[in-house]
Amino acid sequence: MKERLRFVNFHLDRLPSGECRAQVTLSWPHGGRFDGEARGLASQAGELRCAAQACLLALSQAVKDPAFELVGVKSVRAFDASVVVVSLGQPGRAGAPRVVGSYLVDGDAPRGAALAVLNATNRLLSKRTSSRN
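Structure (tokenized):
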């Protein structure tokens, strides 16, 4: 069975300074918790980026290689629903393809951005962990 990182917790604070703070916790099925925190502008686009970045920071603690960087994140309307889409690059890997993840939003778009990051990376990471076993 392939091991995938699990999404444990998400929290977003909108601060009086006009910033937001996102916190994401991930874990492996058999132990190990990884926390990521990021700050950004308290705007619709800023909160999506902040949440995605927090997830990437938690992910970087759980998995050292490959590393990912946020290329972009966007919420779009498709089929009468909101979908958050993220694009991730792999820094330092010439010619490495970008990975894309999405999440159908049920009202909390920043949380959806964090989950889209996990959706973008989990298949790639589960292939790596299953090939090591």
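The chain has one domain: 6-132. Residues 6-132 form a domain with the Double Stranded RNA Binding Domain fold (CATH 3.30.160.270).
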